[in-house]
Specification:
Largest sheet: 5 strands, antiparallel
Subcellular location: Cell membrane
Transmembrane segments: 6-29, 277-295, 307-329
GO molecular function, one term: phosphorelay sensor kinase activity
Protein name: Two-component system sensor histidine kinase YesM
Structural class: alpha+beta
CATH architecture of the domain at 402-589: 2-Layer Sandwich
Keywords: ATP-binding, Cell membrane, Kinase, Membrane, Nucleotide-binding, Phosphoprotein, Transferase, Transmembrane, Transmembrane helix, Two-component regulatory system
Number of strands: 19
Amino acid sequence: MRLKNKLILSYIILITLPLVILGTGSFYASKNIMLKLARDNVTEIVQKNNQIIDERLKIIQDDSLSLMVECDLFQIFDGAAPAQSELLATNKRVTEILNRYFSQSRDLYSVELVTRAFVYGSKARNTYPPDHFYDSELYRQAAEQKGRLAWVPTYDYSLMHQLPELAGADIEYRYLFSVVRQMNPSCVRGDAIVRARAGSEKPVLVMNFRDGLYADLFRNSIPIEGAVFLVAGADGTIISHANAEFVGRKPSSPWLAEVQNRGSGASNVTVDGKRMIACYATSAITGWTSVVLIPPGALTKDIGQTITFFILTLGASLLLLSLLFAYLISMRITSPVSKLLLAIKRVGGGDFNAKIKVEGKDELGHVLMKFNSMNDKVKQLIDENYVAKLRERETEILALNIQLNPHFLYNTLNIINWMAVYGEKEQVSRMLVSLSRMLHYTTDNRKDSMPLFEDIAWLQDYIVIMSNRFEHRFRVDFDIEPELMEARVPKLFLQPLVENAIIHGFRDMESGGLITIYGRRLGGDIAFCVEDNGCGIELERLKDALAENSSHIGINNVDKRIKLLYGDRYGIGIESVPELGTRVKLVIPHGKP
């Protein structure tokens, strides 16, 4: 780490550490106070909301008790049930009675009186047939309570009353919770209570509520952002919820069961892996639990922002002063070091001409002088080593070319000699002209690579000579991609491969010899292939073909030249099947060597 950075870091630590400790202490102290106040206030709100709802529900509960001794209702259901023809008139009378008792309550969604023959009440808000009602959970709970009120948690209207045609409909009474009571109509006459005769039907009073009874009250009374309210039945069914998707469900929530067992109060709970404050109260009327969940972060957000702003403002001011002091102190020390690092970086990139201007005679100035001296010596050693290696490489390549040319010249002159012996003067003349062009091409040993089209032209002259020598026992086909003709290739790199096919591959053939020369682009490389249909090479000789002391001088030289020019990943590969032929593959990079 640089000295300037060390100074800055030390100042930052000295400034921020006390600020962080002070800020953290203030934050947690304020947080605990705020959480306690919020928890107490929200718990009080939940309890008051529960009391308000209980008072409203108690009025409805008392009205349902008064309905039990309503004489007009007693007259309707005392004795035999009304005849089928009297049901509509009876419904009108019953609806008037129900409205007299419950029409003033804005909390009730609908009120029905259910018998096995008819559902009495407003038909706009009760559409189910009575025969399904007696198979429902509403009737089961009413019958179990035997005249007492039974509170039924929120349910799906279409499922409770077996109305599949309403399952996908958009109805306002999709989710309801209800209170049911099995009625035993009676009437007070004088000082005596007259009860319905034996065998009289006992209708069931059903009072329905929407979850808005709780939702509207809690939503408007909890001002904390992110707070979530819910009302749950004793069995865990969600009566009302801030998120309507949860209404009517019975989620598996261990924290909810724990809260219900405690009755009323506040505690810390874990909901879906998040810490929350739960403020809760249990209704004395329904036995249901109202819960408000508060994320602690919502209560402490403002405190955290205030303290953070204070710490950042003070810290920024002190940090600016520390930066100024650090800059002034380190400038005179770090400037020479920065120059030295920049020079080292340039040297690392290969620039050995990098020099540092020495302005002082102190210890750092002495280091810079030594660096300049060392850099000069390193450059001198690298130059000497590079030149030596380059000369060694050029000498080896030149020696290989010189070794190749006499070998080719010996074979060619031998062929012309035999043609002269046989008296083929015109062919000897043509061959000598071709040979002169070839010698002109090969005499410049300083040029190790040539364009491919020039090397192919030279190879075609060579093929003419060899074809005449062997009385046209073979032919050579070229299949080279035209765009490769301008590529730079090693001089005479294909000739030894063709010569090997002619001399060795066709030695036992009188006619029908075929050599095919392919050239293809393979990514950034060029792949050449010289393929013949000659006698092939035995496995033992194939292994020896590219060995150091191989008898195949031309092939071995070409392979060594390619590796010297391009690296060991390039070179020659040979495949051969006896009596079928040989394929020699050669790969070089595309472009100038």
